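sorry for the late reply, my laptop died twice this morning and i had to redo everyting from scratch. anyway the thing you sent over, i finally got around to it. pasting the sequence first so we're on the same page, its 181 residues, then the predicted structure underneath. double check i copied it right bc i was rushing
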Amino acid sequence: MSISDRNGNDHNTDVFVRTVSDGKWRRLLVPAVATTDTDKLRYRLFDDWLVTSLSASLASTVTSKDAPATNVLAVTAQGPPPGTPTILVQPSSRSDSSSLPTRTLTLYNLAYSRSVAIAIPEDDSKIVYIFDGHTVLLRIRDTLFFAEIRGSKLGDYKLVAHDSAIPLVHWAFTPTLSRQV
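ok and here's the structure:
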């Protein structure tokens, strides 16, 4: 999907998709994503969803006016029972990219031209899997959450697990069931 320069930076923003809804080709506005010491992720593809990961240090170099509105997520320990991690969601109203959280994850639906963007204060965060095109498994440092894709936002966050081993979780897989006749 992209070609990196000798420093590992990806300056390719030309990604084209053919949508299922109208069968037309269009340019997908994907920001250039460079690797860091802690995050080698450039793009991830889950069926119809392309996920990009953009660090705050690179956000100032992205000049696209067509970027999706970003919701800012924060993990707190306020859930029931006390001390249980929960997610607080705030719409981003800040235009100063230096004040944005560490990482912005953007989900692009390649079939129906939708996008969802979330900003997360933890650099070690990622979309681990997208189930059936509408349920996201999201890892924020040492916590896993399910979230539902609702239009251009994620919602209905549910705690899946919280453990010191979870930072080692990078992918999830679903079993393929075969039917014998």
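Residues 56-59 form the longest helix (4 residues).
thats about all i looked at so far, will dig more tmrw
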